[in-house]
């Protein structure tokens, strides 16, 4: 049995210019798992996905995906790395002037030279996998938001990726479409044996489908565990997140140095 982690980050630090975003991150994700990364706004969750996909390189540390060091990859190796990876991003819109068929066929045509008949079979299979058989001739403008997200998912899995990265896949969807996407993410992970990393704010929804959760705050991983461990956690941090409380260790307001009453000229100068 293969016990090496599929994704491993060793002592990874990343900064945009002078500004440190992530500091000495260590994590190991086993093959085939569906993992969530949660944390406050701007805590560096998307940056973690960008490091794993090789869109940005760390100033320090190692990022190993399926035995390959992402931080040392050449352009050509990065192209190969991305071919093995599918991404579904909140704003990963469909190409509006291409049909559903051509949208899903796009990565297949970009990365593989296959006869048209085979491309067609692959596209139809992926549309069936997301429950949207028969939509291939529609244009994106004819789709609901939920259908468009599922087509984007079909496009993301077009090349049978070993790794799926999801950035806020539930945002902007109605509850029914959201449930459908959550169910599909889980189903595809299990059926295809894909390893999946999902950045999300939707705690309750993701706890129902993921195997493991990491919490990011202040540039470091501050907690981790299975959904049951997370639900039972005594950490005030995790509890605030899971319960969606406005008050707690995570400050939702910008840390102002003066009070509102002082700003309004009513005395009490310091926060
Ligand atoms: N290209 C960039 N240049 C400079 N700073 C950036 C850049 N991209 C992101 N940042 C900053 O890095 C920090 C982390 O961003 P990131 O998108 O990883 O956070 P996040 O946890 O995904 O946030 P959110 O949940 O709000 O999307 C933010 O403060 C952001 O302003």
Summarize the structure.
By secondary structure, the chain is an alpha/beta fold.
Attribute tags:
271 residues; alpha/beta; Rossmann fold; 2 domains; six-stranded mixed beta sheet; four-stranded antiparallel beta sheet; binds adenosine-5'-triphosphate; P-loop_NTPase; nucleotide-binding; ATP binding
Unreliable spans: none
Kindly report how far apart the N and C termini lie: 56 Å
Helix content: 25-40%
Largest sheet: 6 strands, mixed
Q: Could you tell me which ligands this complex binds, including any ions or cofactors?
A: adenosine-5'-triphosphate
Domain module tally: 2
Binned strand content? 15-25%
Q: What is the residue-mean pLDDT, rounded to a whole number? A: 89
Number of helices: 10
Rounded to the nearest angstrom, the radius of gyration is: 21 Å
CATH superfamily of the largest domain: P-loop containing nucleotide triphosphate hydrolases
Can you count the beta strands? Answer: 10
The CATH topology of the largest domain turns out to be Rossmann fold
Principal-axes geometry comes out as globular
Task: Please state the structural category.
Answer: alpha/beta
Strand order of the largest sheet: 6-7-8-3-9-10
Q: Please report the first level of CATH classification, the CATH class of the largest domain.
A: Alpha Beta
Secondary-structure arrangement, i.e. CATH architecture of the largest domain:
3-Layer(aba) Sandwich
């Amino acid at each position: 049995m293969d016990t090496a982690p599929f994704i491993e980050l060793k002592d990874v630090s990343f900064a945009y210019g002078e500004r440190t975003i992530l500091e000495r991150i260590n994590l190991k994700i086993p093959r085939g798992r569906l993992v969530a990364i949660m944390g406050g706004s701007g805590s560096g969750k998307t940056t973690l996905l960008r490091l794993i996909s090789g869109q940005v390189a760390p100033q320090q540390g190692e990022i190993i995906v399926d035995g390959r060091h992402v931080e040392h990859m050449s352009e050509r190796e990065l192209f190969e790395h991305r071919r093995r990876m599918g991404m579904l991003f909140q704003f990963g819109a469909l190409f509006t002037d291409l049909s559903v068929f051509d949208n899903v066929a796009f990565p297949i045509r970009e990365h593989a030279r296959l006869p048209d008949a085979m491309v067609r079979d692959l596209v139809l299979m992926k549309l069936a996998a997301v429950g949207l058989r028969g939509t291939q001739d529609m244009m994106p403008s004819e789709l609901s938001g939920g259908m468009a997200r599922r087509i984007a998912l079909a496009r993301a899995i077009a090349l049978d990726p070993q790794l799926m990265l999801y950035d806020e896949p539930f945002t902007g969807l109605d509850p029914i479409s959201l449930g459908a996407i959550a169910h599909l993410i889980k189903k595809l992970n299990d059926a295809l044996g894909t390893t999946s990393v999902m950045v999300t704010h939707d705690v309750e929804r993701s706890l129902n489908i993921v195997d493991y959760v990491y919490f990011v705050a202040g540039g470091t991983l501050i907690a981790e565990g299975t959904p049951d461990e997370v639900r039972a956690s005594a950490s005030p941090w995790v509890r605030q997140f899971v319960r969606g409380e406005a008050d707690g260790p995570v400050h939702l307001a910008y840390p102002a140095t003066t009070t509102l009453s002082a700003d309004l000229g009513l005395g009490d100068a310091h926060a």
